[in-house]
């Protein structure tokens, strides 16, 4: 499922799975869009990112902090590197997909 991330959507999915856990393998929620909403996504319990952001070590550090329960550190990292994430995403997803199509 590809959708704009939002805390409400993530909470809704988590609530559904708590009521009726999926059979078999557990379900993982990953977010993308260059991790533009990454700090808030991690706060809602996502397991990580699936994005083309050029600095994966930043995303790994954010995710590691959140998984360790240190959301304050995850948000500090997010706030520190958000300008870089925004700058990198300026062309937009549509432009990137068109370039890849060529």
Oligomer: single chain
Number of domain modules: 1
Main beta sheet, described? 2 strands, parallel
What helical percentage do the residues reach?
55-70%
Roughly how many Å is the radius of gyration?
15 Å
What average pLDDT do the residues reach?
Answer: 86
Order of helices and strands: HEHEHHH
Strand content: under 5%
Tell the overall outline.
Answer: globular
Count of individual beta strands? 2
**Sequence stretches where pLDDT stays below 50 over 5 or more residues:** none
Count of helices?
5
Q: Main sheet: which strands, in order across?
A: 1-2
Structural class: mainly alpha
Distance between the termini: 25 Å
Description:
InterPro entries: Aldolase_TIM. It contains 5 helices and 2 strands; from the N terminus they run H-E-H-E-H-H-H. The chain is mainly α and 102 residues long. Helix 3 packs antiparallel against helix 4 (71-88). It is 58% helix and 4% strand. The mean pLDDT is 86. The protein has one domain (7-101).
């Amino acid at each position: 499922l590809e959708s704009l991330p939002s805390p409400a959507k993530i909470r809704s999915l988590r609530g559904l799975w708590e009521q009726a856990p999926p059979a078999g393998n557990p379900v993982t929620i990953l977010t993308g869009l260059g991790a533009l909403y990454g700090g808030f996504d991690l706060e809602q319990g996502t397991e990580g990112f699936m994005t083309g952001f050029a600095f994966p070590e930043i995303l790994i550090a954010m995710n590691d902090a959140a998984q360790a329960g240190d959301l304050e550190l995850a948000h500090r990292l997010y706030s520190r590197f958000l300008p870089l994430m925004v700058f990198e995403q300026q062309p937009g997803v549509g432009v990137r997909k068109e370039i890849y199509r060529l």
